[in-house]
Write a structure and sequence with these properties.
It contains 16 helices and five strands. Helix 10 packs across helix 11. Strands 3-2-1-4-5 form a five-stranded parallel beta sheet, with helices on both faces. By secondary structure, it is α/β, with parallel strands linked by helices.
Amino acid sequence: DEDALRKALAEGNVSFYSGYDPTADSLHLGHLVPILVMKHLQLAGHKPYALVGGATGLIGDPSFKDTERSLQTKDTVEGWVRSIQAQVSRFLDFENGDNKAEMVNNYDWFSDISFIDFLRDVGKYFTVNYMMSKESVKKRIETGISYTEFAYQIMQGYDFFELNRQYGVTLQIGGSDQWGNMTAGTELLRRKADKTAHVITVPLITDATGKKFGKSEGNAVWLNADKTSPYEMYQFWMNVMDADAVRFLKIFTLLPLDEIEEIGKQFEAAPHERLAQKILAREVVTFVHGEKAYKEALNITEQL
C-alpha cells in the first residue's frame, strides 16, 4: 500500500534493507541505483541495513537468468562477501547517529537452521502454486530450474522475516527484477507473524537503445577501481547519449532536482558542450572513488 508507506516514511524513522548477493568480487553500476536510494533514505533519517548474501550467494538467484548459475565454492563466496561489504561500507554512514547503517549477512541465520526446521517453519507458508506464479520462475520452467534455485525466493523471503524479527525492518529496496523475491518476504511476514511490510523497487536501468547495465550483458562498469579504472568510469559517463544524460543525473547522483532542472536547461541550449555528461561523470566518479580519483581522471581526459 503506497499511501501507508508514504505515511510511514513521512512520520517516523523506518528501518529498511537492501540485499546484495556476492556473485562476483565487485558490485557494478547497476547496483549503484539501490545504493543511492539507501543513501537518500539515510539522509532523510531512516536506518539502513545492508545485507550481503553469504547464504543466498551460495544458492543462486534465478531471476531472469536463462540458465542455472554455476555454484561457487564456500571460500570463493566468503571472499566475495568481504569485497562487497568493503565496497558498500564506503557509500553509507556506518559511524554516526541513531540511524547509522548496519551490515548484515544472511549466512548468520541460515548456517544453523536445519532442513527439517526450515521446511516446517518457513516452507509451510508457501504453496507451490504461489512460487510457480513468479515471473522469475515461469521464464525458467521451459528450460529447466533446479530445486535449489526454485527455493531461492523462500530464502529471500525468510531474510525479510529475520530482519524484521531481529531489527524491526519493515521495508525492502531492490531492483524491479526482484519483485517476486521481495513479495515472498511481505507474504511470509503477513502469514507467519501477521505483520505488514513494504517493498520499493527501482527500475533496471537501460540506455536509450534499451541496453541494460550489468555484467551478464558483458558491458559491466565495475565499482572496483582495479576492474574498471576511475578514468574508464569517467569516460563511460562522458559517452552517455544526450537523450539519457539528464535522466541519469536524477538516478545516479544526489543533486537536488531543481539543480538538475537548471543543468537540463543549459544542456538543451548547448548540448555540444556536454554539460550534463561532465556533471554526471564528476558526481558518480567522486561518489564511487573520491575527489582525488575524479581529478586524475579529468586530468588524463584533458591531456588526451
